[in-house]
Amino acid sequence: ERMRIVDAVLFDKTGTLTKGAHTVTDMAAAAGVTEDEVLRVAGAVEADSEHPLAKALVAVAQDRGLQATARDFRSLTGRGVQAVVDGTTYAVGGPALLREMAAAVPDELVRASHVWSARGAAVLHLVRLVEGGHAEAIGAFALEDEVRPEAREAIAVLREQGVRKIVMITGDARPVAEAVAADLGFRPGVDEVFAEVLPADKDKAVADLQARGYTVAMVGDGVNDAPALARADVGLAIGAGTDVAIESAGVILASSDPRGVTGVIRLSRASYRKMIQNLAWAAGYNVVAIPLAAGVLAWAGISLSPAVGAVLMSVSTIVVALNAQLLRRVRLTPGA
Length: 336
What we know:
alpha/beta
């Protein structure tokens, strides 16, 4: 019932609006370090991580036969990961990691990062930690995730359905997020992008939209999306997502196709129409038939025998049930 009045839909980017299958498209190394060495260390640091970006790095390192062993692995929630390789502590992460560690970034890596971000790639840095707490970036990687073609259609249909605001939330850097939003057809000044958001803060984005008067539907698939799914007016979990996300949501989409959100809205509105129609039919019968059967107009020669009234009651029930069955004609499948 709530889905029919949703006026803001908040999508988690990775795995929902994009395919979630990142590939390493570029890399750069600081002076004095080779790209192979940077990739070897980064692959070792990310080996125990479950993040899609980590898996992409590890896959490339393995394909090139660049192996190393890491120890003391530690996940830095929302920022990256850290481990010790060959006796030196390294970290791999995005902009939040660089800020937290106040890492020095060589000019060549800065230039490369700007070029990659401008085209919508996610950028990760390999940071080396040295004695005294000093941190320096020694490598950078560009990872790109293809936008789902059906995501553009989903957003267009949501607008046709009267959804006032489309919102995307991601932990990626803002240039990357805005490039993806532009590709998806977000309207400047109307739709919104929450970028560089820590996992723990996703539910705050939902609360912010609600505080502004929006009825919010949140669409996500990961463990980090669970609090936001629970806080939203309607939480929709991608069926291929994690169990935690599915448990936190009110609606489970059977596939990863974001057009399923438009189907849920369509079903919600159609169900509500049937509720009103059936209520009107049932109330109309009771208002007319019961008084007649009770003999209210007997003085005027108008009456309805109890037996006929009982038959009409059965007919009324059948009509209501058949009318509800017409919901099967509502087209919910994407592309139908």
